[in-house]
Specification:
Blueprint lengths: L13 H13 L6 E6 L4 E4 L15 E4 L2 E5 L26 H5 L5 H12 L3 H10 L2
Antiparallel strand pairs: 1-4, 2-3
């Protein structure tokens, strides 16, 4: 279980990489989503030794990630999981905001928690709820 993700190619901005990966992995175009927020800083995780492929070039020991909070502005009929060969995902579903923390592989859990904690503070309904409690 994981969110769509991917690397940034030479010359791409994080936003350009976001839209490219979103298209490749789930079929969505920039006009199908709205960027609500992104993490202020890059977040990191290290791979456990058993997942490091020493025969790859370069050797990947972890990832540095920029996270984005998106709002789907189009119909879910635009979601297509079969655009890459092989497909990177075999299913998708709507879930509650914190559900991914219980599903993601353990070594990614901390980076998911950090990103989700930061991004939840920028969700319009969350900030409206918090501000109304203190007015």
């Amino acid at each position: 279980w994981q969110f769509p993700q991917g690397g940034i190619q030479f010359g791409e901005t994080p936003e350009q990489a976001l839209f490219r990966e979103l298209r490749e992995e789930v079929g969505l175009l920039p006009e199908h989503v709205q960027i609500i927020a992104q993490t202020d800083d890059w977040l990191h995780y290290r791979l456990p030794l058993r997942y490091i492929r020493s025969d790859s070039d370069p050797i990947c020991i972890g990832q540095k990630q920029k996270w984005f909070l998106l709002k789907l502005t189009a119909s879910t009929k635009h979601i297509q999981l079969n655009l890459s060969d092989p497909p990177e995902f075999d299913q998708w579903q709507w879930v509650s905001y914190w559900y991914p923390l219980g599903q993601v592989v353990n070594f990614k859990r901390d980076v998911y928690r950090k990103a989700m904690m930061e991004l939840c503070m920028r969700m319009p309904q969350y900030t409206a709820e918090i501000s109304s409690k203190y007015e």
